[in-house]
Design goal:
The chain is an alpha+beta fold. It has one domain (27-173): NADH Oxidase (3-Layer(aba) Sandwich), CATH 3.40.109. It contains 6 helices and 4 strands. It has helices at 16-24, 38-48, 70-84, 88-94, 117-137, 153-159; strands spanning 60-66, 100-106, 141-145, 165-173. A 4-stranded antiparallel sheet has the order 1-2-4-3, with helices on both faces. The longest helix is centred in the middle third of the chain and has 21 residues, at 117-137. The radius of gyration is 18 Å and the shape is globular. The model has no long low-confidence stretch (mean pLDDT 93). Bound molecules: flavin mononucleotide (FMN). Flavin mononucleotide is lined by residues 26-27, 143-147, 168, 184.
Length: 196
């Protein structure tokens, strides 16, 4: 079976609400100077944790740096930048790229003999996608970053991720409509899906 990506929704068996949200989600790097209501972040996180995990290990961790709390993240970025030889001031600014920054961690449940570490990262990725789609459904935008700055021990410490590691930092805000989205290749199933 093949589904034409341009085919009208009425002719394919998908929920139109989900299709809209999945299509609308894009990585956004420029935001309006407008705060994100905390209750929306909380709601989106409640939806994120509906993701599946093998044996209910729930390996995902989210640490929210919202508004003035981003100063703590900025200090961690600055410290990490000094250690890895990046520009400390520029690194510091990255913590203020959006009104809310969420450090996403994965803490594998190593006590369970049937759960492999890869599965824990897989589950964390599922929760992250839930989070991104939930935010999109609320007219919020986001982008995941995973440079050495975001994945640093300093960020891990600031976010209180113990026994695991940071997988990325999600910046969240209202998109600045004046700034264009980055181009991306036309998404499609060609070459990545096989039917037998
Ligand atoms: C695991 C992961 C890590 C990513 N890390 C970065 C990053 O460090 N910097 C960045 O600009 N974008 C990062 N991205 C965003 C991708 O570049 C982006 O999703 C891709 O270009 C497709 O664009 P779209 O999200 O608008 O569909 C990351 C995405 C994922 C899934």
């Amino acid at each position: 079976m093949t589904i034409d990506i341009e085919e009208p929704i009425s002719r394919v068996d998908l929920s139109s609400a989900f299709e809209d949200i999945a299509r609308q989600r894009r990585s956004v790097y420029f935001y309006l100077d407008q705060d994100v209501p905390g209750h929306l972040l909380e709601r989106a996180l409640q939806l994120a944790v509906l993701a599946p995990s093998h044996h209910h290990t729930r390996p995902w961790r989210f640490t929210v740096f919202h508004g003035s709390a981003r100063a703590e993240l900025a200090a961690a970025y600055e410290k990490a930048a000094v250690r890895i030889g990046w520009h400390p001031g520029r690194a510091r600014c990255r913590a203020f790229d959006a009104p809310a920054m969420v450090v996403i961690g994965c803490v594998p449940d190593v006590s369970h003999p049937r759960v492999r570490p890869l599965e824990e990262e897989f589950a964390t990725a599922a929760a992250t996608q839930n989070l991104m789609l939930a935010l999109t459904s609320m007219q919020l935008s986001c982008a995941l970053s995973s440079s050495p700055l975001q994945l640093s021990d300093e960020v891990e410490q600031a976010a209180g991720i113990e026994g695991g590691r940071v997988v990325g930092v999600l910046q969240i805000g209202y998109r600045d409509p004046e700034r264009e989205l980055f181009k991306r290749p036309q998404p499609g199933t060609a070459g990545v899906v096989r039917w037998r």
